[in-house]
Design goal:
InterPro entries: GlcG_carb_metab_protein, PduO/GlcC-like, PduO/GlcC-like_sf. By secondary structure, the chain is of the alpha+beta class. It has helices at residues 8-25, 53-67, 71-76, 121-133; strands at residues 30-35, 40-45, 101-106, 109-117.
């Protein structure tokens, strides 16, 4: 059995595209890419990006891979009364329910994920989408 995963070269491609989009929207970002196992491959903190966004970006990527769902969608389904309410307390409190975390697929299989933090939810999501679309 062969497990397909993102490589460092893939992560660099993703980060470069995400940085370009972050520059376009005028918001420095933290950008993290994880492999199929949810392990960090690479992280970039753009000049001026919040220090507090480092863990958030890494954990958004982890969350997107751990549940194979965009963090934006998970956030919508984890509000009071929704099916995933309370999920943020799982996995040693690593679960992020803000927009900006996206699983990355290849050939119908999840091969890793991207997490972006530093702007509004809409900015984080658009930067993450640009990164994912670079592959």
């Amino acid at each position: 059995m062969t497990i397909s995963t993102l490589t460092l070269a893939d992560a660099r491609t993703i980060i470069t595209a995400a940085e370009a989009k972050a520059s376009e929207v005028g918001q420095p970002m933290n950008i993290a890419v994880v492999d199929v196992g949810g392990n960090l491959i690479s992280h970039a903190r753009m000049d001026g990006a919040w220090l507090g966004g480092i863990d958030i970006a890494i954990n958004k990527a982890f969350t997107a891979r751990a549940f194979d769902i965009e963090t934006k969608e998970l956030g919508e389904n984890s509000q009071p009364g929704q099916q995933f309410y309370g999920i943020v307390a799982s996995n040693r409190n690593r679960i992020m329910i803000f927009a900006g975390g996206i699983p990355i697929t290849h050939g119908g299989e999840v091969v890793g994920a991207l997490g972006v933090s530093g702007g509004t939810g809409e900015q984080d999501q658009s930067v993450a989408e640009a990164g994912v679309n670079a592959l």
